[in-house]
Each structure stands twice: as C-alpha cells, then as structure tokens.
Write a structure and sequence with these properties.
Bound molecules: zinc ion
Protein name: Alcohol dehydrogenase
Largest sheet: 7 strands, mixed
GO molecular function, one term: oxidoreductase activity
Helix content: 25-40%
Number of helices: 11
Shape: globular
Radius of gyration: 20 Å
InterPro entries: ADH-like_C (IPR013149), ADH-like_N (IPR013154), ER (IPR020843), GroES-like_sf (IPR011032), NAD(P)-bd_dom_sf (IPR036291), Zinc-ADH_QOR/CCCR (IPR051603)
Organism: Trinickia fusca
Distance between the termini: 10 Å
Keywords: NADP
CATH superfamily of the largest domain: Medium-chain alcohol dehydrogenases, catalytic domain
C-alpha cells in the first residue's frame, strides 16, 4: 500500500512517500481503508524528533476516517463496511480511569500515529475500541478533523471547570488547539477572549465565537482587564508556555484558574507567588484527553454547535507540503490529506 512515513528525523522533506507492506489486524483490531487523515502539530513534532522520539519508521497521523475492511479474529461486534474515525488516545479500556472516560490517566496511555502507525496511509490498523462509528451526517474530512485537537481542548476546558458566562482567555488562538478551544468555549456559553499575534486572524476568530481578540506581549493582561470590566479572566487556557505564562497569570481574575496543556515556547517561566495567594489562583495541568471528552466533542459537532473548519485538502503524497503549510503563518483550520 501507499504510505507516508517518518524514516528519519528532519525537515518536511524527510518524510518518505512510497509503497510499504500492508498491515494485518491483530485479534482485537480492525483494518481501516483510510479516506481522510488530519494533519496535527503533533505530526510535525514527531517528524522533527526534538520533543518526542518514537521508534522509526513510523507512519504518523492521529486523526483519520475511513471504513472497516477487515476484522481481527476476536472482533465480533463490528462489521465490514462500517464508517469509523480514529479515537487517537490508546488506553487499556479496563482500569478505573478508562472506565470513567479518563483514558489520558491510564497507565498504558499512548497515541495513534506515534505509539502505533497512524493514518498517513491507504490502510491503518486500529484497536477495535479506537474505531468510533462516524455519524452519516459527517463526511470523511470532518471525521478526520476533531479527534485530537478538539478533544484535547475539551479536556483542558473541563479540567479548568469552565462555566457558562465566565470569561476565558485562550492563548495561541490562531493555532489548531487554541482555535478548537475558541469554538468549544463559545458553544459552552463562555465569554471568549482570544490571543493571536497575527492581526489577519482577528476577523476569523471573531466569526468563530471570540468576543475580543488581544495580542500577546507585555500589555496582554491589561487588555484582558479592559475587556472584562477590570476583573480579568476566570479561566486562562495556556499551552504556549514560557513566552506568555507571566502575562497569563497576571490576566487572571480573583479565584481564577489556569489550565496548562502544553509548553510550545519553552518550559521555564517566572511565577508571581504573591498573585497566586492574594488572588487565590489555581494552576491545573492537563495531558491528552479521555473518551468522555471525545464523546462530548462528537455530540457538539453532530448537532452543529462546533464546525471544524477544513482549510485545505491535499493528496496524501503532498504530506510534506501540508507540514510546511501548518508550520507557516496564516493557517486557521484543519489541513486534511486524502489517500
Ligand atoms: Zn486504562
């Protein structure tokens, strides 16, 4: 079959496209004919090999949609021809965390497209429990667009206990995770303040549900106070890390929470300890998402409250171009590859 693989770490052109052996499903797996595969920043990080390293070669792609074409010997509750999309988080499915839908706390936590081969291919093997039925109302492109980022954003907003009517400051809103959080927080009834360093993203962020857009930098916290009648934000959605963290803390209201789900710009930051105790702040970490977050997103997408925006559709063979586009300025929305 045709696939795009990471054979070695490096720039986008390090991706190798060509024929690879067809994978065979294990007893509890299904084989999926992939119709669309979403491109995520995680794929770029894997390819670069600086933050994460996985055994190579690896076929990336955490988000994909397609139809089941073969069943493992022990799989009795699925059928050939079923339309499915990949639940990106791998977990045991049996422990106390998994049974509560908190798969991201499972000891066997892993990710499709990094722990096992993913969707940059004509065919992919998935554990049967990770092949989630795709509603008929959703096409392949949409099915390949929300499993990773939207569920991660939903997990962060849940960890941050966002309530309707609260103000939420969303960092990196012109990137995939932040853009998803803007839509989800709007659908949850929050007052959304988006942070974007790209002025041209402002109109799209306002159209997607942000009530205000502020720029990162030394004046960010003041801009947030101005946008909230002087109070500050009840929740800050942080994943940018070192570059913004001090201003993110300063932007919080009394009793505010900051949920941290990434550190894109670095892992060290100054922390204003006085602000923590005088404003009674909470800092909450969050990694990955659970099945309950994916289910929540699926419901919101199915009823139209959230509409993942497909920015570009490219043939799978152009995966390197997709990586360059995602790394460049100005991409709002998903890039989807079609096999
Ligand atoms: Zn588990």
């Amino acid at each position: 079959m045709f696939a795009v693989r990471i054979d070695r770490y490096g720039p986008p052109d390090a991706l190798s496209a060509g024929e690879v052996p067809m994978p065979a499903p294990g007893p509890h797996d299904v084989l999926v004919r992939v119709h669309a595969s979403g491109v995520n920043r995680l794929d770029l990080l894997l390819r670069e090999g600086n933050v994460f390293q996985v055994p190579l070669p690896r076929i990336p792609g955490s988000d994909f949609a397609g139809e089941i074409v073969a069943l493992g010997a022990e799989v009795t509750d699925r059928r050939i021809g079923e339309r499915v999309f990949a639940a990106p988080i791998l977990s045991c499915g049996r422990c106390e965390h998994c049974l509560r839908g908190e798969d991201n706390l499972c000891r066997t936590f892993g990710t499709v497209g990094s722990t096992i081969d993913g969707g940059y291919a004509e065919y992919a093997v998935l554990p049967a429990r990770n092949a989630v039925p795709l509603p008929m109302s959703m096409d392949w492109h949409v099915g390949a667009s929300f499993g990773l980022t939207y569920a991660t954003a939903a997990a962060m907003l849940r960890r941050g206990r966002l309530l309707a009517g609260e103000s939420v400051l969303i960092l990196g809103a012109n990137g995939g995770l932040g853009f998803a959080a803007v839509e989800l927080a709007r659908d949850m009834g929050a007052h959304v303040i988006a942070v974007s360093r790209e002025p041209e993203a402002k109109a799209q962020l306002l159209a997607r549900g942000a009530q205000a857009v502020v720029a990162p930098g030394p004046d960010m916290a003041q801009a947030v106070r101005d946008a909230t009648g002087g109070r500050g934000a009840e929740l800050v959605f942080e994943h940018v890390g070192a570059a913004t963290f001090e201003q993110s803390i300063a932007a919080l209201a009394m009793d505010g929470r900051l949920v941290l789900g990434g550190v894109t710009t670095g892992i060290e930051s100054k922390l204003d300890l006085k602000a923590i105790f005088t404003k009674r702040l909470e800092i909450l970490g969050c990694r990955g998402s659970g099945r309950r977050d994916l289910d929540d997103v699926l419901v919101r997408v199915a009823r139209g409250g959230v509409n993942p925006h497909i920015q570009r559709i490219l043939p799978l063979a152009h995966a390197a171009q997709a990586h360059r586009l995602l790394d460049g300025p100005g991409v709002l929305g998903k890039i989807v590859l079609t096999a």
